Protein backbone atom coordinates (compact mmCIF):
# COMPACT_ATOMS: atom_id res chain seq x y z
CA UNK A 1 0.00 0.00 0.00
CA UNK A 2 1.22 3.48 -0.81
CA UNK A 3 -0.19 6.96 -1.12
CA UNK A 4 0.18 10.70 -0.93
CA UNK A 5 -0.60 13.32 1.69
CA UNK A 6 -1.85 16.62 0.27
CA UNK A 7 -2.17 20.01 1.97
CA UNK A 8 -5.21 22.03 0.84
CA UNK A 9 -4.87 25.72 1.49
CA UNK A 10 -2.55 28.69 1.11
CA UNK A 11 1.07 27.70 1.46
CA UNK A 12 2.17 28.59 5.02
CA UNK A 13 4.74 31.31 5.53
CA UNK A 14 8.27 30.14 6.26
CA UNK A 15 9.14 30.94 9.89
CA UNK A 16 12.82 31.15 10.90
CA UNK A 17 13.97 29.66 14.20
CA UNK A 18 16.09 31.86 16.48
CA UNK A 19 19.01 29.90 17.97
CA UNK A 20 20.97 32.97 19.03
CA UNK A 21 20.66 32.06 22.74
CA UNK A 22 23.23 29.33 22.09
CA UNK A 23 25.95 30.40 19.61
CA UNK A 24 27.28 26.82 19.52
CA UNK A 25 23.92 25.73 18.07
CA UNK A 26 24.05 28.48 15.44
CA UNK A 27 27.45 27.18 14.37
CA UNK A 28 26.47 23.49 14.53
CA UNK A 29 23.30 23.86 12.48
CA UNK A 30 25.12 24.77 9.23
CA UNK A 31 22.44 27.02 7.81
CA UNK A 32 19.45 29.01 8.89
CA UNK A 33 16.85 26.82 10.65
CA UNK A 34 13.15 27.05 9.85
CA UNK A 35 10.02 25.82 11.60
CA UNK A 36 9.14 22.33 10.34
CA UNK A 37 5.78 21.91 12.08
CA UNK A 38 3.98 22.23 8.73
CA UNK A 39 6.17 21.01 5.87
CA UNK A 40 4.47 21.67 2.54
CA UNK A 41 6.54 20.59 -0.44
CA UNK A 42 6.19 20.30 -4.21
CA UNK A 43 2.61 19.96 -5.49
CA UNK A 44 1.41 20.67 -1.93
CA UNK A 45 2.69 17.34 -0.64
CA UNK A 46 2.72 17.29 3.15
CA UNK A 47 5.74 15.80 4.90
CA UNK A 48 6.21 14.40 8.41
CA UNK A 49 2.75 12.83 8.58
CA UNK A 50 2.64 9.62 10.64
CA UNK A 51 0.49 6.84 9.15
CA UNK A 52 -0.55 3.74 11.08
CA UNK A 53 -3.21 1.02 11.29
CA UNK A 54 -5.97 2.29 13.57
CA UNK A 55 -8.04 -0.91 13.32
CA UNK A 56 -7.97 -4.23 11.48
CA UNK A 57 -5.10 -6.01 13.24
CA UNK A 58 -6.83 -6.76 16.54
CA UNK A 59 -5.65 -10.01 18.14
CA UNK A 60 -2.58 -10.35 15.95
CA UNK A 61 0.92 -10.52 17.42
CA UNK A 62 4.19 -9.54 15.77
CA UNK A 63 7.82 -10.22 16.52
CA UNK A 64 9.61 -7.24 18.03
CA UNK A 65 12.41 -5.93 15.76
CA UNK A 66 15.93 -6.36 17.08
CA UNK A 67 17.25 -3.31 15.21
CA UNK A 68 16.88 -0.12 17.28
CA UNK A 69 15.26 3.07 16.07
CA UNK A 70 17.71 5.98 16.24
CA UNK A 71 16.83 9.55 17.16
CA UNK A 72 19.79 11.85 16.63
CA UNK A 73 20.42 15.35 17.97
CA UNK A 74 22.41 17.16 15.31
CA UNK A 75 22.68 20.88 14.73
CA UNK A 76 20.51 21.34 17.84
CA UNK A 77 17.71 19.61 15.96
CA UNK A 78 15.97 16.28 16.43
CA UNK A 79 16.43 13.95 13.45
CA UNK A 80 13.97 12.67 12.46
CA UNK A 81 11.23 15.00 13.66
CA UNK A 82 8.58 12.27 13.36
CA UNK A 83 9.44 8.63 13.96
CA UNK A 84 7.62 5.35 14.49
CA UNK A 85 8.65 2.50 16.77
CA UNK A 86 7.13 -0.80 17.83
CA UNK A 87 6.24 -1.68 21.41
CA UNK A 88 9.31 -3.26 23.02
CA UNK A 89 11.73 -2.13 20.30
CA UNK A 90 14.83 -0.26 21.46
CA UNK A 91 15.19 3.46 20.80
CA UNK A 92 18.74 4.81 20.80
CA UNK A 93 19.01 8.55 21.40
CA UNK A 94 22.30 9.96 20.11
CA UNK A 95 23.90 13.37 20.67
CA UNK A 96 26.07 14.38 17.70
CA UNK A 97 26.38 17.98 18.89
CA UNK A 98 29.16 19.79 20.79
CA UNK A 99 26.58 20.92 23.38
CA UNK A 100 24.52 19.20 26.08
CA UNK A 101 20.90 18.34 25.36
CA UNK A 102 18.07 17.18 27.58
CA UNK A 103 15.66 14.81 25.83
CA UNK A 104 12.20 14.78 27.38
CA UNK A 105 9.49 12.54 25.85
CA UNK A 106 6.23 13.71 27.47
CA UNK A 107 4.38 10.39 27.40
CA UNK A 108 0.89 9.98 28.82
CA UNK A 109 0.47 6.19 28.50
CA UNK A 110 4.11 5.14 28.69
CA UNK A 111 6.55 6.31 31.34
CA UNK A 112 7.63 9.92 30.96
CA UNK A 113 11.38 10.45 31.23
CA UNK A 114 13.83 13.30 31.11
CA UNK A 115 17.53 12.65 30.56
CA UNK A 116 20.55 14.91 30.05
CA UNK A 117 23.06 13.89 27.37
CA UNK A 118 26.37 15.67 26.91
CA UNK A 119 28.74 15.73 23.92
CA UNK A 120 30.29 12.32 23.37
CA UNK A 121 27.99 10.58 25.85
CA UNK A 122 26.89 7.04 24.91
CA UNK A 123 23.43 6.54 23.38
CA UNK A 124 20.45 6.66 25.73
CA UNK A 125 18.54 3.39 25.26
CA UNK A 126 14.83 3.31 26.07
CA UNK A 127 11.82 1.08 25.35
CA UNK A 128 8.09 1.80 25.25
CA UNK A 129 5.72 -0.78 26.71
CA UNK A 130 2.35 0.43 25.35
CA UNK A 131 1.04 1.85 22.05
CA UNK A 132 0.79 5.64 22.13
CA UNK A 133 -0.01 8.12 19.35
CA UNK A 134 1.84 10.49 19.58
CA UNK A 135 4.49 11.22 22.22
CA UNK A 136 5.79 14.81 21.98
CA UNK A 137 9.50 15.23 22.66
CA UNK A 138 11.32 18.40 23.66
CA UNK A 139 14.77 19.45 24.76
CA UNK A 140 14.55 21.28 28.08
CA UNK A 141 17.69 23.25 27.23
CA UNK A 142 16.85 24.33 23.65
CA UNK A 143 13.17 25.32 23.45
CA UNK A 144 12.93 25.08 19.64
CA UNK A 145 13.82 21.38 19.53
CA UNK A 146 10.68 19.29 18.93
CA UNK A 147 9.99 15.73 17.79
CA UNK A 148 7.18 13.16 17.95
CA UNK A 149 7.24 9.41 18.54
CA UNK A 150 4.47 7.08 17.36
CA UNK A 151 4.47 3.81 19.33
CA UNK A 152 2.55 0.99 17.64
CA UNK A 153 2.10 -2.75 18.14
CA UNK A 154 2.78 -3.83 14.54
CA UNK A 155 5.25 -3.12 11.72
CA UNK A 156 2.72 -1.41 9.42
CA UNK A 157 3.39 2.30 9.73
CA UNK A 158 5.13 5.04 7.76
CA UNK A 159 6.12 8.72 7.77
CA UNK A 160 5.46 10.78 4.65
CA UNK A 161 8.51 12.24 2.91
CA UNK A 162 9.09 15.84 1.81
CA UNK A 163 6.87 15.28 -1.25
CA UNK A 164 4.05 13.85 0.87
CA UNK A 165 4.56 10.28 -0.32
CA UNK A 166 4.43 7.19 1.89
CA UNK A 167 4.55 3.41 1.58
CA UNK A 168 3.41 0.65 3.96
CA UNK A 169 4.70 -2.60 2.43
CA UNK A 170 3.54 -6.18 2.98
CA UNK A 171 0.20 -5.32 4.61
CA UNK A 172 -1.79 -8.60 4.70
CA UNK A 173 -5.14 -8.83 2.91
CA UNK A 174 -7.97 -7.42 4.99
CA UNK A 175 -10.04 -4.35 5.79
CA UNK A 176 -8.32 -1.63 7.77
CA UNK A 177 -8.78 1.86 9.08
CA UNK A 178 -5.68 3.84 8.19
CA UNK A 179 -4.98 6.92 10.31
CA UNK A 180 -2.80 9.84 9.28
CA UNK A 181 -1.57 12.21 12.01
CA UNK A 182 -0.06 15.67 11.58
CA UNK A 183 1.18 17.70 14.51
CA UNK A 184 -0.76 20.89 13.71
CA UNK A 185 -3.71 19.58 11.69
CA UNK A 186 -4.80 16.53 13.69
CA UNK A 187 -5.78 13.09 12.40
CA UNK A 188 -7.58 11.94 9.24
CA UNK A 189 -8.85 8.36 8.72
CA UNK A 190 -9.85 6.18 5.79
CA UNK A 191 -11.16 2.62 5.59
CA UNK A 192 -9.58 0.47 2.90
CA UNK A 193 -9.73 -3.15 1.80
CA UNK A 194 -6.40 -4.68 0.79
CA UNK A 195 -6.52 -7.61 -1.62
CA UNK A 196 -3.98 -10.42 -2.12
CA UNK A 197 -1.75 -8.21 -4.30
CA UNK A 198 -1.67 -5.39 -1.77
CA UNK A 199 -1.72 -2.75 -4.53
CA UNK A 200 -3.77 0.02 -2.91
CA UNK A 201 -3.17 3.74 -3.36
CA UNK A 202 -4.55 6.26 -0.87
CA UNK A 203 -4.68 10.03 -0.79
CA UNK A 204 -5.19 11.96 2.43
CA UNK A 205 -6.11 15.65 2.29
CA UNK A 206 -5.36 17.93 5.22
CA UNK A 207 -7.05 21.30 5.08
CA UNK A 208 -5.56 24.49 6.46
CA UNK A 209 -6.87 25.62 9.84
Q: What would a concise description of this structure say?
A:
The protein is 3% helix and 43% strand.
Structural overview:
With 209 residues, the chain is mainly β. The protein has a single domain (2-207), classed as Cupredoxins -  blue copper proteins (Immunoglobulin-like, Sandwich). The chain has one helix and 16 strands. The strands form four sheets. The chain has a five-stranded mixed beta sheet, with no helix packed on it. A hairpin with a 4-residue loop joins strand 3 (69-73) and strand 4.
Keywords:
globular; five-stranded mixed β-sheet; Immunoglobulin-like; mainly beta; 3% helix; 209 residues; four-stranded antiparallel β-sheet; 43% strand
Distance between the termini: 28 Å
Biggest beta-sheet profile: 5 strands, mixed
Which residues sit in consecutive blocks of at least 5 with pLDDT less than 50?
A: none
The total count of helices amounts to 1
* Name given to the CATH architecture: Sandwich
Q: Could you name the CATH topology? A: Immunoglobulin-like
Helix content: under 10%
Order of helices and strands: EHEEEEEEEEEEEEEEE
Q: Which range does the strand content fall in?
A: 35-45%
For CATH, the homologous superfamily is named as Cupredoxins -  blue copper proteins
Silhouette: globular
Q: How much is the radius of gyration in Å? A: 18 Å
Q: Which structural class matches the secondary elements?
A: mainly beta
Amino acid sequence: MDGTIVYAGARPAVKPIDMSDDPACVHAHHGRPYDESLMVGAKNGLGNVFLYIDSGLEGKRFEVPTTPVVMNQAGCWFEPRVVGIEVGQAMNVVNSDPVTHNIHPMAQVNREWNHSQGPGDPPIVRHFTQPEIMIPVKCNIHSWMRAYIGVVSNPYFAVSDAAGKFRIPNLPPGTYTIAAWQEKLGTERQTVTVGPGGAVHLQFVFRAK
